[in-house]
Amino acid sequence: MLFGREHVERYQETDGAEGHDWQGTTVLLLTTVGRKSGQKRTSPLIYRKKDGDTYTVIASKGGADEPPLWYTNLQANPEVEVQVWGEKFAARARTATPEEKPALWEAMAETWPAYNDYQKKTEREIPVVVLERV
Question: Which residues form the signal peptide (predicted)?
Answer without folding.
Answer: none
